Amino acid sequence: MAYSVKSKKSGEMYYLHKKLVSLRGGRKQTIYFFARDVRDGALDDLPEGFIVMENKRTGLPMLKKGETARVG
Fold it and tell me: DSSP letter at 46?
């Protein structure tokens, strides 16, 4: 079952996904995003060290590095 979050502002359900993208310099980077439907790359749980927060203006969920994940 995909990890889901319900928006407090809109009441919509959003599902967490992960995707590996190529940057201009050829470097690979993992991105995390929320979508209204379950697609390829859906995650069952939050990545370690991240927390979910909601954009106050739009009501969209976002991932943020958790306080315990910060080093230095």
Answer: P
